[in-house]
Structure formats: structure tokens, C-alpha cells
Specification:
binds magnesium ion; alpha/beta; six-stranded mixed sheet; binds adenosine-5'-diphosphate; single chain; Rossmann fold; 6 helices; 224 residues; four-stranded antiparallel sheet
Length: 224
């Protein structure tokens, strides 16, 4: 079976001319279906850049990147949107919308799938909020949720459409230890139940037990 993600000889740079800086060098990384892979490495080593390239959130420059068997380089925006809709993102900068309640925030991922009828939005969102232990916060707005609760809403939003691939960037970094432990358990349980592939940037030791593989990034290069 083809890997879910196949990264080959990927190189990426920011800036132009004298300011040009290579932040990813010759990255090679296959992710197989159902794997949980941790990516760790010092700040500035290129982890977030790699995740945003794999998630089709940033235009790639050099190399080869296949997601779900399809090439990203040169793909039209329609195809990129379709690819993104199959990925669950848990990124710090993809915050909740303050004007939407918890279930409405979760339902924003369902709206990317035209085949899901609108009447299913609320029941599916509520079921996923149940799965992350927020059954009593379905109608709450972000301003009335703690940091850990908001992070769990973001996880529910990432997983509600049953993506084949979840990309998570330091999902426990802003949480206290109990909330962090809850998030680790929830992600493990849902990854196992949904059988999805997870690529996780984290320094949190509690994730080590649930990982199939641990990769180390240093100066834009991958070591395993
Ligand atoms: P990490 O997630 O491992 O901390 P990043 O991928 O965020 O690393 O950043 C890798 C390098 O790329 C850093 O030197 C950072 O300053 C630089 N960088 C990241 N994003 C941009 C950008 N949009 N423009 C210019 N430089 C960037
Ligand atoms: Mg980062």
C-alpha cells in the first residue's frame, strides 16, 4: 500500500538574495497508514515549516511531496483545498473562532465536506465533543473555556471529519499537567479508534509511550 505521506528530497528556504536562508534540507520521510510519529528538535530547526508543507498550507519549492498518493507540487488550488479537507490540523495559530460556540467551531471542519448534510453538523460535533470530555460545553463560547478546554475543542475540530492524517504542532505546550495528560490520552485513543496517521511535533515526554517512531530534526535535517 502507498504511504499516506511520501516526502522526498524536500528542501525549503525563506527570504531572497543575501537574506535567503535554507530551513529544510533534503528531507525524506514516508508516513504509513496508522502510524503515530513524533518529530522533535530544537526551536528554529524547521519542524513547523515541515508540518505546514505536508499540510499544503505553504507552497513547496524543491522536492517531491505526495499526500494520499497525489503530488502537491503544481497542484491547483481546488485540489489543495480538497487535500487540506482530509487533514486534521492542531496548530497553535489555527485558533478557535471567538464568535462561534464550541460545537460550531467543531462543525467548521464538516463544512469543508459538501457530502455531509447540514442536519448532521450538530450531532457529529456533539459526539466528538463527548469523546474529548466536553459534553457540558457544547454551547459555550471560547471566552468561557479554559486553555485546556479550548485545546480539546481544537482536537475535536481536527478529528470530527475522521481525517486520514492528523498534523499536530505542540498540542500540549500551553496546558497545565492534568490538561496535558488528558490531551495525550484523547489523541492516543482517537488515533487508535480512527486508525489515522498522526505526525506530532512535541517535547512532551508523555507522548513517547504512544509513538511508533521518533524523528529528530536538527538545522533543517532529519535524523531518526
Ligand atoms: P520550529 O518549528 O522547529 O521552531 P520553524 O519551522 O518555525 O522551526 O522555523 C525554522 C526557521 O525558519 C527559523 O529560523 C525561522 O525563523 C524561519 N522561518 C519560519 N517561518 C518563516 C517565515 N514565514 N519567513 C521567514 N523565515 C521563517
Ligand atoms: Mg514550531
Amino acid at each position: 500500500m502507498a504511504p499516506i505521506v511520501a516526502v522526498r528530497q524536500l528542501t525549503h528556504a525563506f527570504g531572497r538574495g543575501a537574506l535567503r536562508k535554507t530551513v529544510l534540507s533534503d528531507i525524506n520521510l514516508p508516513l504509513e497508514a496508522g502510524e503515530i510519529v513524533i518529530l522533535e528538535g530544537p526551536s528554529g530547526s524547521g519542524k513547523t515549516t515541515l508540518l505546514s508543507l505536508i499540510g499544503a498550507l505553504r507552497t513547496m519549492q524543491i522536492g517531491n511531496l505526495q499526500i494520499f498518493g497525489q503530488d502537491l507540487l503544481g497542484a491547483k488550488s481546488r485540489r489543495l483545498m480538497q487535500t487540506r479537507s482530509q487533514i486534521g490540523f492542531i496548530f497553535q495559530h489555527l485558533n478557535l473562532l471567538n464568535c462561534l460556540s464550541a460545537w460550531e467551531n467543531v462543525s467548521t471542519s464538516l463544512r469543508l465536506h459538501p457530502q455531509i448534510p447540514k442536519r448532521n453538523y450538530r450531532p457529529q460535533a456533539v459526539a466528538m465533543l463527548n469523546a474529548v470530555g466536553l459534553e457540558d460545553k457544547v454551547d459555550a463560547y471560547p471566552e468561557n473555556l479554559s486553555g485546556g478546554q479550548k485545546q480539546r475543542v481544537a482536537i475535536a475540530r481536527a478529528l470530527v471529519s475522521h481525517p486520514q492524517l492528523v498534523l499536530a504542532d505542540e498540542p500540549t505546550s500551553s496546558l497545565d499537567s492534568q490538561a496535558g495528560r488528558d490531551v495525550v490520552e484523547i489523541m492516543q485513543r482517537l488515533a487508535r479508534e480512527e486508525g489515522c496517521t498522526v505526525l506530532l511535533v512535541t517535547h512532551d515526554n508523555r507522548f513517547l509511550d504512544i509513538a511508533d517512531r521518533i524523528l529528530h530534526m536538527e538545522d533543517g535535517r532529519l535524523q531518526s
